[in-house]
Amino acid sequence: MIEPLFIPVETYLVPSLPDVWFGVVMFALAMYIVLDGFDFGIGMLYATRDNDHERETLLAAFGPIWDANEVWLIAFGTMTLAAFPDVYSRLLADNYLIALGFVLALLFRGIGPELREQREDEHWQRACDYSFVGGSVLAPFLFGVLAGSWVFSVGALSLPAILTGVGLVAVSAVTGAAFLAAKTGPALAGEMRDLGVVATLAYLGGVVVLLAVVVWTDAGEAAGTILSAPGIAIVGLSVVAGLSGIVLALRDRYRAWLATALALPTLLSALVALLLYPTIYPATATGLELTVSDAVVSPLALNLTTVLGFPVLVVVLWYFKFLYGVFSGPIETEGYGA
Amino acid sequence: MESATNVLDVAFGAGAALDGTALFLPAELASRVQFGWTISVHILFAALSIGLAPFIVYFTWKAVRTDSERYERLRSFWLKVFAVGFVMGTVTGIPMSFQFGTNFPQFSAVAGELIGGPLAFEAKMAFFLEAVFLGVLLFGRERVSDRLYVLSSALVGFGAWLSGFWILVVNAWMQTPKGYEMITRNGMEVAQLTDPIAAFLTPRMTWMYVHMINASVIAVALLVAGVAAYILWKKRDAKAWQTALKIAILILIVAAPLQAVHGDAYARHVEDTQPQKFAAMEGHYETGTADLHLFAVPTDLSALTDPRAENLFTISLPRVGSFLASGGDFDAEVIGLNEYEDNPPVALVFWSFRLMVGLGFLFIGLAFWGGYLIYRDRLADSSRYLKAMILASPLGYAALLTGWYVTEIGRQPWVIQDVLKTSEAVSSTLTSTEATASLTAFVVIYIGLVLAALYTLRWLIEGELTELGVTESATDHWYGPIPGVTSDD
């Protein structure tokens, strides 16, 4: 057999490459719930604004970046398909309506703001606002349910899955509020701070209830993992990040608050990774349990995706930095095609 | 119920239709209709991004470099269209890739190793590029230098074309799979990548890429020309729109004939690699020499659903089909549909192919007519031509969709040619209730999306006319062509 592009065919570039890819997939998941998370949060907080200028400020805050943020979902999905195709197919087939409901919610979140500004008509703009807010609440909820159903292997219509959905909604509200507080003037920032503090408390409360339910019922045999040292560390850090975020917010140190707020969804992804590994898909009606090494593709395919994909991922991170740099600083209200 | 059953039989093959009493569609049928429907809508927006990209780059470059009001106007107008199209393309594209898992998990599991890599490259190399720099293009005019701004437009355009490349790598592999071997993993027969160059750069890849990109360019050039013609029809001296019409026609003069020449060679490649699809395109049942049907109309209604040469009125060149398929032999044998156990829905493939080719020749005619008017310097004065271009504006999309149907429906019953049947790829746990519910949601929501996109275009045109001082556009009665022109969706 020839070795195309001098990439090894029979062995992985490094023996732990499948585990590295598990990490890459989880990294993409974290990027998605961190970055699109605050977009969802902005969508929820949008519902609390009733004057047009404030609404447009919120839209301007996320206008240039949300599209790029959303691509992390596609990166997460396609990299899962590329590295662990069985996981991709079973995750989506096992949660059919939840998965399609989620993408339709994303659809409404996406088109709302885009179509809103195309027409000066109050009914039209209200309809677009409903689409934006509704999608922004429903999308993280359903994505959370999907993740909960995956991690705890108890099905989508179960308490742990639904609580995970609620948790993702709450944490998105926290990061959205912190992002807006850091980007807007004092008046709006103050209101975002108050809403953000409530959302943080709700999130921390929700996490406590979720973990209590999981430990109590031992859903997906997760109790042991949560009560292990790394599990306790992640939960403890979340509580510390949440509480210090509240303190920083109340002292009006918004940029520092934003940093702690972004730690919350990051830690949540870490918890997902911890609960899954080394099993990447639990046993369900459609098949037996899959570990990372069961589910991973053959060496050539993974090596190729690594060699071609990793440098590109570095470039992507670099131009994300560029994008956020261009649009750093306080928001100017401006429209499309300016 | 008889006729409804017939239509379903025709569309999806005998036996696929429901029994007339079921409230819900069988999961497989619903999944196939859903995939076909969602990709049909998605492709409209994907092609808009691909086809509009060169216009955006050119208008941005000219606007920044010459500071002229004319190009600034065109840049601003078409960038808004591009932005709406991009968002629509994104929101309809995400459900596309999800359906590989939700509805066709066996396909994902069998082919994941071959299709996952290219799809991931599409996201990382192309889609991020497009999304990031579109943000700069839409919101960053005052925040980045002129040079970086023009570069952003080029990167967005490059992203759109690269995106099409990786998607077609996947599709071409499904049409003519290479560079893999079947192995057993987790108790299942799956394809393992053995030769990436062979798998990703199949000959089909080149054929599809040129044909698809060019089809998108033609469809969007016709759209741009149609909008320009409409505005000129209302206001003949709108300089910017004279420029837009002229550029669109010049693009058509190159692209439309290229598509015909290329398409002819592509059809021969299909005959070599997918003879069954080629036979369906020509309605060729008996193995033997083949005639070329230049023109075909059914003599009775049954021929619509069962297009066999004896039931059609055709203008044919005897044995030229053999000549073309074999590349020079009038007596060459062309395999007929009777040789195969399962055939694709022949009628859909046959008529789609005829419609696509007919439209292709129409576009060549329109392009050269426009070229003649440009040469005579009478472009904006010919009401007849302006009206023709207004009417033609959705037809590029009709050709694009019918071409896509030939490719995709023509491959049935296979989802991966000769490797995996569509019926084997579909989810085993999917219930007909779930499948019918999601199909209904997609149908309703996507119709809404297409209407929203068309209305947005209409408002943009209204706004443009108001700015140009055409007052009648502000009245309540709008008799313009755009809202009525929805035949392509």
List the helices and strands and how they pair.
The complex is a heterodimer of chains A (338) and B (489).
Chain A: H1 17-46, H2 52-62, H3 66-83, H4 85-94, H5 96-116, H6 122-152, H7 159-183, H8 186-217, H9 223-226, H10 229-250, H11 254-276, E1 279-281, E2 290-291, H12 292-295, H13 299-326
Antiparallel strand pairs in A: 1-2
Helix pairs in contact in A: 1-2, 1-3, 1-6, 1-7, 1-11, 3-4, 5-6, 6-7, 7-8, 7-11, 8-10, 10-11
Chain B: H1 2-12, H2 27-66, H3 69-102, H4 105-139, H5 146-175, E1 180-185, E2 188-193, H6 196-200, H7 203-234, H8 239-273, H9 275-282, E3 292-298, H10 302-305, E4 312-317, H11 320-326, H12 346-376, H13 383-392, H14 395-409, E5 414-416, E6 420-421, H15 422-425, H16 432-467
Antiparallel strand pairs in B: 1-2, 3-4, 5-6
Helix pairs in contact in B: 2-3, 2-5, 2-7, 2-16, 3-4, 3-8, 3-16, 4-5, 5-7, 7-8, 7-13, 7-14, 8-9, 8-12, 9-12, 12-13, 12-14
Describe the structure.
The complex is a heterodimer of chains A (338) and B (489). Chain A has 338 residues and is an all-alpha fold. Chain A has 13 helices and two strands. Chain A has helices spanning 17-46, 52-62, 66-83, 85-94, 96-116, 122-152, 159-183, 186-217, 223-226, 229-250, 254-276, 292-295, 299-326, and strands at 279-281, 290-291. A two-stranded antiparallel ribbon of chain A has the order 1-2. In chain A, helix 10 (229-250) packs antiparallel against helix 11 (254-276). The radius of gyration of chain B is 24 Å and the shape is globular. Chain B contains 16 helices and six strands. Chain B has a two-stranded antiparallel ribbon with strand order 1-2. A two-stranded antiparallel sheet of chain B has the order 3-4. A two-stranded antiparallel sheet of chain B has the order 5-6. Chains A and B meet through helix 3, helix 4, helix 5 and helix 13 of A and helix 3, helix 4, strand 2 and helix 16 of B.
